Amino acid sequence: MSDIDPENRIAFQGVPGAYGHLSCSTVYPQMEAMACDTFADALAMVRDGEAALAMIPIENSLGGRVADIHHLLPDSGLYIIGEHFQPVKHQLLGVPGAVLSDIKEVHSHEQALSQCRGLTRDLGIEPMIHADTAGSAKMIAELGDKSKASIASSLAGEIYGLTVLRDRVEDRIGNTTRFIIMSRQRQDPDPKDGSCMMSFVFQVRSQPAALYKALGGFATNGINVTKLESYITDASFEAAQFYIDIEGHPDEARVSRAIEELQFFSAKLKILGVYPANPYRRQYGA
């Protein structure tokens, strides 16, 4: 680890060149991005004071929610202070001197390969699953084999000295990953400064129509729920916890009323963060 001040570090999961790394460089170019093996490791770096922030993917427009994140957030001891929407722009990367006709195999994360089926079909190349996109680029650079290529970010290509054989190889333009930015301190913005988001988890009481009643306050108070997901928290499969994102700030009367009603029907509620709504939401209706 470098001698950079921990308060000028931001952690991400993956190897250098991953989309998490690209997101860190885009939002916090002045900070040193630190690669971590797992999401839990990235969160622990912040919790233990080895980094100021963590950039964590929570959902993808094509692939849905990112596994494990909802289980990790409530017990991380951290708070969401911001969000970032990162366009996923896949590149077909090969070793210097390689051309498209040389490629027989393409390596990448399973999700990236599924997002680029048209490429593998059109070129007649065999997809090979790798743990992550940037890791596959690193492997291709180390192998130096012109018959093997990687699907990864442009940053991965730059870091590992690979050549872009074809740009934007995803089947569907508009693939985007939403990242949340985690900090040790809760940093609620002033609601007067612009639109806000609020994220929290809750469990409903075990009684008929509890979820319907718990969410009723958001409808009656005109609050937009942008995300609601459930997941099981114990082996009995009876305790369902819900993750929810809403538009609004807890200092707003209407939000306060909705939260109060939610708490009446909830066994547990924990706020994960209040943060500015990213401008991407207004532009694309996210």
In short:
The chain is α/β, with parallel strands linked by helices. The protein contains ten helices and 15 strands. The chain folds into three domains: 6-88 and 176-183, D-Maltodextrin-Binding Protein, domain 2, CATH 3.40.190; 91-167, Periplasmic binding protein-like II (D-Maltodextrin-Binding Protein, domain 2, 3-Layer(aba) Sandwich); 191-284, ACT domain (Alpha-Beta Plaits).
Structural account:
The chain is α/β, with parallel strands linked by helices and 286 residues long. It has three domains: 91 residues, Periplasmic binding protein-like II (D-Maltodextrin-Binding Protein, domain 2); 77 residues, Periplasmic binding protein-like II (D-Maltodextrin-Binding Protein, domain 2, 3-Layer(aba) Sandwich); 94 residues, ACT domain (Alpha-Beta Plaits, 2-Layer Sandwich), CATH 3.30.70.260. It contains ten helices and 15 strands. The strands form three sheets. Strands 1, 2, 3, 4, 5 and 11 form a six-stranded mixed beta sheet that branches. It has a five-stranded mixed beta sheet with strand order 8-7-9-6-10. The chain has a four-stranded antiparallel beta sheet with strand order 13-14-12-15. α8 packs antiparallel against α9. It is elongated, with a radius of gyration of 21 Å. It starts with 8 loop residues before the first strand and ends with a helix.
